[in-house]
Structures are given as C-alpha cells and as structure tokens.
Write a structure and sequence with these properties.
The protein is an alpha+beta fold. 25% of the residues lie in helices and 33% in strands. The protein has 13 helices and 30 strands. The longest helix is centred in the C-terminal third of the chain and has 21 residues.
Length: 599
C-alpha cells in the first residue's frame, strides 16, 4: 500500500489570461517533469487551437514529483483547467477529481467575472483554496489592491496569500510548499474494493477509448475485469498509466492517484464521463457522485458541405462527443441543406471550437445554421412543448404563451463605461438589477437578459463599448414569459420553411429587413419580378423586390410605326404575367448559406 499522505491532487482556477498555463509550465520545470530539450511554452495546451488562440479548452492532467523543504518526496497531480465561461463544465469536472485548488488572480487586472464563478464552484465542492497573485513583475501591478478585492469580493483571507510571477518563476517554489502544507491528502472511504471516477476521455484510433480516471478507493492493474456502473458495461484493463505530461504506463493505479485507463472498449458511445469504474467480480454498492448532466443552451444545425460526407460527419461527431460531454447532437433534415445534425452547445465559443475541431482533427467541412435557443410553448389545452426549431412550431391559434430562457449576467467594467454597458444591456431587452463597486476603478453590474439576445455579437459589443476592459460571466435562471412570433419568409407568395425563425415581436421588423436584404443580394434575377417578403402570420413587415430580367424585344424594330413596338411589348408583358403564375423560383445554395449561416 503506498503512502496517501504524500499525494496532493489540485488544479488551477482563474479568469482567461491570468497565467494558469504559464504557472503550470514553471511547475513542470521546477519538478523536472519535462526534459529541458522537449520543453515549450504552454506545455499542457497540446491542441493547435489552444496554442493559436492562447486559451485552454480541455483540462490536462499531469503527475509531478516534488521534494519539499522537509526532505520528503510528494506526488503532485495537477489538472490544468480552462478559464472561458463556455468551458466551465470542464472546470467542474476537474474540480471533482481534486482536494484543493490554486486560485490565481492577475495583479494588474484584479478579480474578474470568471474568477468569481470558478471560486464559487470550488467552495461548493469543499476544496481547500490557495490564493496566489500573479504577474507582480508588471509595471502596473497593484498586489495590495488586488489582495483587498480577493478578501472583499471572494471573501477569502489573504493572510497566507502568495505573490508570484509565473513568467519569471519568482515565488513559484513558495506555491509548491503551500500546496504541501494547505491541501489535504486524498482520503480513502470505508467502501472496500475499487471505485474510480472518469473525469475525461479521448478516442485513440489504435487503442479505442482512453478514459482519464481518479482512483478514489482500491487499486486497478492490467488484466483486471472492470465494470462501468452507469452503462453496466464490462471490460478488461489493457493498460493503466500516469501523465508525465506524456502518457506513461505503470504497474497499477492506487487510491488517490490520477491517470488513464485503456480497456477493451472500442465504441465511443459505451463510456460516460462522470461514471464510476468498479470491479466486475465485487462491484461497489454505491457509485461515486458524478457530474450533473450538462444542458446545452445554444442550438445550431451542422450540415456537410458535400452531401457524400454525411457518414464521415456522423463518425466525427461521435468521437468528439466522447471528449466533450457538453456537446449533443441528433439527426435532422433540411429542405435546403439536405441531411445533417441538430447540435447543442454551451455557448458561441463552444460552437466555434467544435466547428474548428471538426475541420482540423476530422477533416470535415461544414455549414452551420443561425444559432437558436430552446423555447417553451404553453398551449391552450394545458400542455407544454419545447421547441428549438421554428419548423416544429404549433399552430399560433392554439398557443397560450411562450417562455424563453433567461440568464443573470455579472459584468465587471470600469466606472467610465457604466452608461455604455447599461445602454447595451437595455438594447438587448435586459435590465440592470444592481451595481456594486469592486474597487475605486471598477464596478460589478448584475443584469437579467434573455439568452437569445447574447447569442450572436453581445460579447463583441461589450468589449467594444468598454474598450476591451469589461469581463462577463453568466448563469441560467430558468424561463420567463415572452412575446415571441414566428417570422416567415415568402418568395413570390410562397413560404420557404428553411428561412423561418422565432424572434421577439419588437425585433421582428429589423430581422425581417435584414433577411430580405441578404436574399435580394444572393438570389439571381428571374424572367419575372420577384417579391421577397417577411411576414408574421398574414401581416407583411418587410419587403424587397428583385427586378425582372428584360430581353430587348424591340431591338429589330428600327424606325417605322410605334404600334409595332407596342404590340411586341404587350406580348412580352403578357408572357411575364403568365410566367409569374406558373414559373418556379430557383434559390441557390449561397442564398440559404447567407441567411442561415452565423455572420
């Protein structure tokens, strides 16, 4: 039995760009976990996307050996976590595998929205926090003021707070010593036998599904028969190992350790994140508390650019779903775009990252449709339905009222931009509940907004009006009644289903005008004039007209009597009128993409 008192499981939580990955780099160098020749910056961000954007998307585990000042060697299991609001589910999963966390705050920027959210998450799970103020080497650093913010906004005592610079390595040794002192070692429960928590998983073409586990009780070695308690699936262990940061096989994984498990599972769908692994012969009585099921908030259709790639897209989504439990999908068909999938995401960055990963990792080129949210429809007969696609909208005469998802947003911004931020919130049908000071320069505004309004460009506009200084975090607070209408687009008097959308009545006219304008630019001219209308029920709210193509029928009549020309023009006019009644409108693929695609 190995010594549990020498193991420390912890993660780093912080706002985006406060230096999590850089601190992890310094720790890897200090413990000589990585060869100096192999070392590179952002060592744990191994996805190209992460390195390009300078953000962490996936949590990455790594095991380090550290000899403390007392001469004892400790095993540190670090799980590097993302900081962006769309990836907070990654953070919650990582926290569940730890006993403590380093709370990292930028000495120049201070406490930001995401710092607050992740701290609350850690406190709820009962983790021991080690407050650390980073970037003290910056000329505009103000550690004293930031310490006061941590105490007041986060209510965490700073008497043991550490001041460091992860970039230069100053103070990192003291952080390691604080981890040994403050973070408790893992404790084994009274439950006998094996129990391990799956907190992440990836798909390997050669070895099948690789699960990342934290062993809570017992031990696991090669050849063991194991059972996944959630799915009831039995398997055999082919290999266990730890991350240093590269995967390294070991004899066995013991209580308190974090590592990976390769079994005979080949299909991505047979494993669930948050599941408990136990022995097949003597299964545990109680599964470990997993993670609450993540509910997608934003829906968008993904369609292959080339219809022959449908099966390839399906396989790719399967593998991606394994590595990203917040992503969900189901097949759907569209008149315009053919076969595809209705996919659920946590937010727009999440949607963007999934698209980019499909393109890079799986070489699938896709079109994504305009994002929408899930609305609740209450009917007059007392029943309720959830719709995320306007096509499924029931007959308006049967609808009692609609409800749309609402969220509470916490926006931290400089004092001089309070008015601009309030104006932006109100334009998006939101209301500011309260405003509190964070320090002498910044305030935290608590607002209530409909989720639909922050989908497309709210975050970009927030950054614009605050000159890049505002930060935002949000939580979902349920549904509220709303005056929603279905906006139909008519071409030559015929409704085109693919263009229909659900919008708030106050925004219907502007959205209708926008769609009509886009269609006028992309639909080619026909032999007859073509009206494009946006309508709510039978009321037209916007219109554009594509002028008819006109052949010059009088070209051969030079000189002579005017009545000859008039006769030819009359005949042409009659032909166009007949054509308008029987002619069909051909809508090119580009027109669908222009309207449905995320701008």
């Amino acid at each position: 039995m190995h010594d549990l008192s020498r193991i420390r499981n912890f993660c780093i939580i912080a706002h985006i760009d406060h230096g999590k990955s850089t601190l992890a780099d310094r720790m890897l160098q200090l413990t000589h976990a990585v060869d100096a020749r192999e070392f590179r910056d952002q060592m744990l961000d191994d996805m190209d996307l992460e390195r390009e954007r300078g953000i962490t998307i996936k949590s990455h585990p790594v095991t380090m050996r550290y000899t403390a000042a007392n001469g004892i060697e400790y095993h540190f299991n670090l799980i590097d976590t993302p900081g962006h609001v769309d990836f907070s589910y990654e953070v919650s999963r990582s926290l569940a595998a730890c006993e403590g966390a380093i709370l990292l705050v930028d000495a120049a920027q201070g406490v930001e929205a995401q710092t607050v959210a992740n701290t609350h998450l850690a406190v709820e799970l009962g983790l021991e926090l080690v407050p650390v103020i980073n970037k003290i080497d910056l000329p505009n650093a103000d550690p004293a003021e930031v310490s006061r913010q941590v105490e007041e906004v986060l209510t965490i005592g700073m008497e043991d707070g550490l001041l460091i610079s992860a970039k230069t390595g100053r103070g990192v040794e003291a952080v390691m010593e604080a981890l040994v002192r403050k973070i408790p070692p893992p404790a084994s429960s009274a439950e006998k036998g094996l129990r391990a928590l799956i907190f992440d998983s990836v798909f390997d073409v050669f070895r099948g599904v690789v699960a990342y586990v934290r062993v809570v009780d017992g031990r696991m070695k090669m050849g063991d028969r194991i059972r996944f308690m959630g799915t009831g699936y039995d398997s055999e262990v082919k290999e266990v190992g730890i991350f240093t940061p590269k995967p390294r096989p070991v004899q066995a994984l013991e209580t308190g350790q974090v590592g990976y498990l390769v079994s005979t599972i080949r299909r991505p769908g047979d494993i669930r994140i948050g599941d408990t692994v136990t022995e097949a012969r003597l299964p545990a009585r109680v599964a470990l508390p997993g993670f609450k099921e993540i509910q997608p908030m934003v829906f968008s259709g993904l369609y292959p650019l080339n219809t022959a790639d449908y099966e390839k897209l399906k396989l790719s989504l399967d593998k991606l779903r394994l590595n990203d439990c917040a992503f969900s999908y189901q097949p759907e068909t569209s008149v315009a775009l053919g076969l595809g999938f209705r996919c659920g995401f946590l937010g727009l960055l999440h949607l963007e990252i999934v698209q980019e990963r499909l393109r890079r990792e799986y070489d699938v080129h896709i079109i994504s449709t305009y994002p929408s949210v899930v609305y609740k429809v209450h009917l007059k007969d007392g029943t309720a339905a959830e719709i995320d696609n306007p096509i499924h909208m029931p007959d308006p005469t049967k609808v009692e009222h609609f409800e749309e998802p609402m969220l509470r947003a916490f926006i931290i911004c400089p004092n001089e931009h309070i008015g601009d931020v309030m104006k932006l919130v109100m334009e998006r049908r939101g209301a500011v509940e309260k405003t509190e000071s964070v320090d002498t320069r910044r305030v935290i505004q608590t607002c209530v907004l409909p989720l639909n309004e922050i989908l497309i460009d709210f975050y970009d506009n927030l950054k614009s009006v605050s000159h890049g200084y505002a930060s935002m975090d949000y939580e979902h607070i349920g549904y509220a009644a709303s005056d929603l209408v279905k906006l139909d687009i008519l071409l030559n008097g015929e409704i085109v289903d693919a263009f229909s959308c659900l919008v708030h009545r106050s925004k219907a006219q502007s959205r209708g005008r926008q769609i009509c304008r886009q269609l006028k630019e992309t639909i080619p001219q026909h032999l007859f004039s073509l009206p494009i209308q946006a309508a709510i029920g039978r009321t037209v709210v916007a219109r554009e007209t594509i002028r008819a193509l006109r052949k010059d029928v009088t070209a051969k009549c030079y000189g002579g009597d005017i009545t000859r020309k008039r006769k030819l023009l009359e005949r042409q006019k009659e032909g166009k009128r007949r054509m308008k009644q029987v002619g069909s409108v051909s809508v090119p693929q580009e027109a669908f993409i222009a309207v449905l695609k995320v701008n």
